[in-house]
Write a structure and sequence with these properties.
The chain is an alpha/beta fold. The chain contains 26 helices and 18 strands. The strands form 4 sheets. The chain has a 9-stranded mixed β-sheet, sandwiched between helices. α8 (191-203) runs antiparallel to α14 (313-337) and α9 crosses α11 (257-277).
Length: 702
């Protein structure tokens, strides 16, 4: 075969995806034609090659089709490198990220540089108010910690899961999943929390019996938390679950098979939780509800998780999967309230192959499930890996944008995913220079193209020590509405029996404050609390027309001065109510406010629900009277008929002698339990008094 024939046959092979069966026919015709006929065939194929690839010269390198021009909004554009002939590669976040991204390639060929440039552009768009989505970066090796010195972003939270210092991440995934499953009537949907239990069992080899055992324990510790009026001391966490297993008496470990299996399940469940909670990482996932930072707050910030402090990959995998599980549940609840479209959160996962492996039973990991579901919830994944060839096919299929730098593993598989037709094109992935990547973006152009990423010299060589990180995070804790944390988690050897230590009493203020020592906003806050004692903090901030950040600063300042105290009331969600101290009441009196006296039991929770029920009846057109004849609320109709509405918190039993007297005087009695635990306790009391089926008594939801 001479060089002319070899060149023509090679051209036919390169155009085989266009010519199809005609490729072999043209080869046969070329052999039969004379020189003029051969020249005509060559010219025809050269024109097709120029139209498809932009050139017909394939001797130096593999040429990919040029990227067509596309108009992009100038305010929302990102420059991520250059194309052939130094033409800049410009795209927008929605086109690039909405259908997930894969960035693969061997170490040292520009992967991290590209991610750094992408983060720089995203932070710039956030600063210019052209992008609302926040970034979450899981950094396995500490490659991106120097972001705090880059000047790209001044509100990047840096956490180190498992840290014992000021980079501690106070997040309790078990508590968060329980809260996300809480309904307005106090009933809890355990579906999300059960998925977290499944994650633990997958990572630490718990079978079906172990899962059932742990889920039973979960429901018991949540019920205990509800019975204790949702106190921080009984916050559901992994330590409480382990404590429940240790304390539980299996009993009757007889010779029966079921009893022996029960013992084996208990021991296996204890081993699984003990392996997780025995580490500092596991202990940091057991904070109480007062220390826990809600995901609702975290979703408003860019976050960098430094994972190098976690010793084992299984812990890192569990942490990332738990965050994704919480995010999915949170976004689904958010979507029920608002159908706002567009990007909301972008997750960058380094060494992504570790969290994309199937479990021992062949089930898909939570990250892969999220790739299908969270796209419609406004969440995007950027998966980064040194070995893109080992990523599952479903990951490639669910990704809209693919960027591959130099790689020498499974080039045929990667090339096929990138749309490289011939073996020579796929092999070209092994010859890419530093900073070069073969790209394919379904939303922009279905065919692959070549990208020259920008080289940023020494961008990751800036050393950052822990002192600099702690100093960087100190002002950001204030934006989270928290003081700089001082870890007070018991030692691992004492974790079982010291987990429920009593809370320290609040410190009494040493100084007597005067009205002149308070700022204008602090005075206004006290006035609004006095006038609206049953409004939560969020409503008060809206009335004051101030931001959440400034409102949190004012609230913390008044708490430190001992003028207010924060009480939490559960009303489908946690409502934080402000209560004036004696000093606060004195200041309110100096401001000319009328101090509202709490009636009845004196419980803020009781008063909150009584006020709520009063407004409910008034909205229906009834007159209401407080504390008449020993009843909480007397409701008077237009025709003079009267009924009563009793608030039941479950903290004290019902005075049935007084209740029988009220039943003789009033036509109907409504009981309003304040929680599911209170409702269950009320039903027991009604059952004991043979009044559960009475037509004159109705139990309603708060």
């Amino acid at each position: 075969m001479n060089s002319q024939q070899e060149q023509f046959f090679s051209l036919c092979d390169r155009l085989k995806h266009i010519l199809g069966e005609r490729s072999e026919r043209y080869k046969a015709l070329w052999l039969l034609k004379d020189q003029k006929g051969k020249a005509r065939l060559e010219r025809m194929l050269i024109m097709k090659a120029i139209k498809e690839f932009g050139t017909a010269d394939f001797t130096s390198k593999v040429f990919l089709p040029p990227l067509p021009d596309k108009n992009i909004d100038k305010d929302n554009q990102m420059k991520l490198g250059s194309l052939d002939k130094k033409k800049p590669f410009i795209t927008d976040p929605e086109t690039l990220l909405r259908r997930h991204v894969i960035v693969g390639g061997s170490s040292g060929f520009g992967k991290s540089t590209f991610i750094w440039k992408l983060l720089q552009e995203l932070f710039r768009l956030q600063k210019e108010k052209h992008l609302d989505a926040k970034c979450v970066l899981f950094d396995w090796k500490g490659d991106y910690v120097s972001l705090i010195k880059s000047g790209f972003d001044k509100e990047l939270l840096v956490f180190r899961p498992g840290d014992t210092g000021k980079l501690i991440f106070p997040f309790n995934p078990l508590y968060q999943t329980v809260v996300l499953g809480m309904k307005p009537n106090g009933v809890i949907d355990f579906s999300v929390a059960d998925q977290l239990i499944d994650l633990i069992c997958v990572r630490w080899l718990g079978g079906l019996g172990v899962r059932r055992y742990l889920k039973r324990g979960l429901r018991d510790i949540v019920q205990k938390w509800q019975d204790n009026n949702y106190s921080a001391e009984h916050t559901p966490c992994l330590n409480k679950l382990l404590h429940w297993i240790v304390e539980l008496e299996v009993g009757r470990q007889g010779r029966g098979r079921s009893s022996q299996r029960s013992v084996e399940w208990r021991e296996s469940a204890e081993r699984s939780l003990d392996e997780l909670t025995m580490t500092e990482f596991g202990q940091r996932l057991c904070c109480n509800q007062d220390e826990h930072i809600s995901y609702n707050i975290l979703s408003n910030f860019n976050i960098l998780f430094l994972m190098e402090n976690i010793s084992q990959d299984s812990y890192k995998q569990f942490f990332i999967e738990a965050i994704f599980l919480v995010n999915k549940a949170f976004r689904m609840e958010q979507q029920k309230r608002s159908r706002k479209g567009g990007l909301r959160q972008i997750f960058f996962i380094d060494e992504s192959w570790n969290v994309l492996q199937t479990d021992n039973e062949g089930n898909e990991p939570i990250i892969l499930q999220s790739m299908r579901s969270t796209r419609s919830l406004g969440c995007s994944l950027v998966l980064i890996d040194q070995l893109p060839g080992i990523l599952p096919k479903t990951v490639w299929g669910n990704s809209g944008s693919k960027f591959c730098f130099n790689t020498d593993t499974d080039t045929a598989k990667v090339g096929k995913a990138l749309g490289l037709i011939t073996k020579e094109q796929s092999d070209y992935l092994t010859r890419l220079d530093i900073g070069q990547a073969v790209c394919r973006m379904k939303a922009l152009h279905p065919k692959p193209f070549l990208l020259e990423a920008e080289i940023m010299d020494n961008f990751m060589l800036k050393e950052v020590n822990d002192f600099e990180l702690e100093a960087y995070m100190k002002p950001l804790w204030e934006k989270l509405g928290r003081n700089v944390p001082i870890p007070a988690v018991p030692a691992s050897s004492q974790r079982l029996f010291n987990a429920e230590s009593p809370e320290q009493p609040a410190k009494k203020p040493d100084k007597i404050y005067t009205l002149s020592e308070l700022s204008i906003l602090e005075r206004a806050f006290i006035k609004y609390v006095c006038e609206n004692p049953f409004n939560g903090l969020t409503k008060i901030w809206k009335l004051m027309k101030i931001s959440k950040r400034n409102g949190t600063k004012i609230k913390e300042s008044l708490e430190q001065k001992g003028l207010i105290a924060i009480n939490e009331v559960l009303n489908g969600r946690v409502v934080k109510l402000s209560k004036l101290s004696e000093q606060g009441k004195r200041i309110a009196g100096e401001l000319g406010c009328l101090i509202r006296r709490l009636q009845g039991e004196g419980s803020l929770e009781h008063e909150y629900y009584r006020d709520k029920r009063k407004r409910y009846w008034q909205a229906k057109g009834y007159d209401t009277i407080f504390e008449k004849n020993g009843a909480d609320i007397v409701v008077v109709g237009n025709n003079g008929t009267a009924i009563i509405d009793e608030i039941y918190t479950g903290k004290s039993p019902i005075n049935w002698n007084n209740m029988r007297r009220l039943m003789k005087k009033y036509q109907h009695i409504y009981f309003t339990p304040t929680s599911s635990a209170a409702r269950a306790q009320l039903n027991e009391e009604l059952k004991d008094m043979d009044l559960l089926d009475s037509k004159r008594i109705t139990v309603v939801a708060a």
